[in-house]
Every structure is written in C-alpha cells, then in structure tokens.
Amino acid sequence: MVDWTVEERKLILETWGKIKVKVFGPLALRWSRYFGTFGDLNSALAIMGNKKVVNHGITNMDDVNNTYVELSVLHSERLHVDPDNFRMGRGFTPDVQAAWQKFLAVVVSALGRQYY
C-alpha cells in the first residue's frame, strides 16, 4: 500500500488527465518506425545489447548542445518531429516531477513483485 499525500494524488491525476491516451498510444507505436534502422529490438536482451540504442542515450553533460547537433538535425530536417514533444511546459514543476517519480517507482515495484 502506498501513502499518497493529497497534493501528490492531485498532481498525478491532473497530469494524467492531460494525456490523450487514444491519440498518443497509437502514435507511440507509429513513432517506433523511426528506430527501424537500429536492428533487432524484439526483446529486452536485444535492446540492452544494441549499440545503436546505447549510443542514442549517451549525453556529454559538459557540451550538451554539440552532443545533440546530429540528433537535432535528424529530428528537424529528416523526421520532422514536432519540437513540442520535447517540452515539459510550465505546469511540469519540481513537485509534479517528484509525484510522478514516486508514482512510477510504485508501478515498477508492483510489476516486479512476482519475480524471484
């Protein structure tokens, strides 16, 4: 059982209420086509061992702008990804972040309960 504060519960429900599940669910599956050149992504083991996946998430924190130049060009000029997909917006405050982080930790714990 999780003890949610009134504020945490409010923040999670408000944020989730903004998500258009029927719109973004199918879009998320469509977006996966962008990773078709990554090779085998058919299992967790394949994904974890895939060098293209690993490199996709590497960040040089000392030079973020240059680290993402190629990816930015790919997103904007070839894939035409809407930049709003990367913005959190003003409503995504540290309190909302903390509440969601707690919520997701609880979800991960619940999903992992049956593993030995």
UniProtKB/TrEMBL annotation:
GO terms for biological process: hydrogen peroxide catabolic process. GO terms for molecular function: haptoglobin binding; heme binding; metal ion binding; organic acid binding; oxygen binding; oxygen carrier activity; peroxidase activity. Residues 3-116 form the Globin domain. Keywords: Heme, Iron, Metal-binding, Oxygen transport, Transport. InterPro entries: Globin, Globin-like_sf, Globin/Proto, Hemoglobin_oxygen_transport. One of its GO terms (cellular component) is hemoglobin complex. The keyword Chaperone does not apply. Belongs to the globin family. This is Globin domain-containing protein. It comes from Oncorhynchus tshawytscha (Chinook salmon).
